[in-house]
């Protein structure tokens, strides 16, 4: 077993961010990373690391009812491009069920502390991008707007203006980094949220990829959107 980067890390000032526990060899493609957030959730994720020095890190956040596995194909493409992909199970889901709250259907909606410790755990590997789907997209945007110095760029699959209290219109106006949004016109879950967020964006580098269909979140992943995402990573994660 090898220790992942550092044993304990702190956020702004003296506020504790959380603790990185360990990293263990899981398969030939990934390493299993485990850490504890500042509010007591044990979070587990998969690190996809390129064979040579990484150019940066992409932290991936799944949709409601999803898991880190949703990002497997995209994570392999990110790794092939020379970047580290870090896909986590957010609090109360998948392998991250140990904590002070409920899991499964009643898992917490706000996962910003999971992003916080994840970003601090990998920040020494280079610039960081966040990719999120559905509620994972909203949480990514909320974190990025509050910590622009920690996030270089964002890719959001099916974000919303408000998922269960995760309101993002103010955040998207505040966030000025590169932003790529994927949305399908018939998506009734996200509704017009992605369009509203694109219109309200405070970024000079924001794109809405609006396509036909009814897909939501990770269902939008295919060869084309994967390549568009990788191209965006290469262009903005420097």
What is the subunit arrangement here? single chain
Write down the overall mean pLDDT.
Answer: 91
Low-confidence stretches: 1-15
Give the beta-strand count.
12
Number of helices: 6
- Terminal residue distance: 31 Å
Structural class: alpha/beta
What are the secondary-structure elements, in order, as H or E? EEEEEHEHEHEEEHEHEH
- Backbone CA Rg: 16 Å
Per DSSP, what share of the residues sits in E-state strands of 2 or more residues? 25-35%
Q: Quick one: biggest sheet?
A: 10 strands, mixed
- Helix fraction bin: 25-40%
**Morphology:** globular
Strand order across the largest sheet = 1-2-3-4-6-5-7-8-11-12
Structural description of this entry:
It is a single chain. Helices cover 25% and strands 27% of the residues. It is α/β, with parallel strands linked by helices. The chain has a 10-stranded mixed β-sheet, with helices on both faces. The model is unreliable at 1-15 (pLDDT under 50).
Which properties best describe this structure?
12 strands, alpha/beta, single chain, 238 residues
């Amino acid at each position: 077993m090898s220790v992942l980067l550092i044993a304990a890390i702190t956020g702004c000032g003296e506020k504790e961010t959380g603790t990185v526990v360990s990293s263990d060899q899981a398969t030939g493609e990934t390493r299993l990373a485990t850490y504890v957030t500042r509010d007591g959730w044990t979070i587990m994720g998969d690190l996809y690391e390129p064979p040579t020095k990484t150019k940066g890190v992409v932290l991936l956040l799944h949709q409601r009812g999803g898991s880190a596995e949703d990002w497997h194909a995209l994570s392999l493409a990110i790794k092939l491009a020379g970047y580290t992909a870090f896909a986590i199970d957010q609090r109360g889901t998948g392998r991250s069920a140990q904590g002070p709250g409920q899991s499964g259907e009643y898992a917490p909606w706000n996962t910003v502390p999971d992003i916080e410790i994840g970003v601090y755990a990998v920040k020494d590997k280079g610039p960081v991008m966040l990719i999120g789907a559905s509620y994972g997209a909203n949480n990514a945007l909320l974190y990025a707007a509050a910590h622009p110095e920690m996030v270089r760029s964002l890719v959001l699959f099916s974000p919303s203006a408000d998922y269960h209290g995760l309101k993002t219109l103010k955040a998207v106006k505040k966030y000025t980094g590169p932003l790529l949004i994927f949305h399908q016109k018939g998506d009734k879950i996200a509704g017009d949220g992605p369009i509203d967020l694109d219109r309200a964006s405070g970024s000079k580098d924001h794109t809405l990829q609006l396509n036909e269909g009814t897909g939501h979140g990770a269902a939008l992943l295919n060869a084309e959107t994967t390549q568009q995402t990788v191209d965006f990573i290469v262009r903005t994660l420097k």
